[in-house]
């Protein structure tokens, strides 16, 4: 079995409502989801050039773990998602992780290659 077995939800988001309320709701949802079994990591990005555009990458142990977390949402959490739907245009999809690479650490006395 490959070491890359996680599932990542990649969600392009365009905010069409109040951006302050959007960030509040995202913080609430992120806190809730990060406590769920199978959650691995969340990364949240905002465009430098288009302030209303975001990407959310939520990594899960597998697709079933995400689905189980979604199925356990309380009425309060479902309310956050309903409000989020009114503030945004989203198009989430799920992706298998096929490869990952991090930068190589520099060793003492070694310089980074020129760019």
UniProtKB/TrEMBL annotation:
It comes from the Bacteria. The lineage of its organism: Bacteria, Bacillati, Actinomycetota, Actinomycetes, Pseudonocardiales. InterPro entries: ABM_dom, Dimeric_a/b-barrel. Residues 22-70 form the ABM domain. This is ABM domain-containing protein.
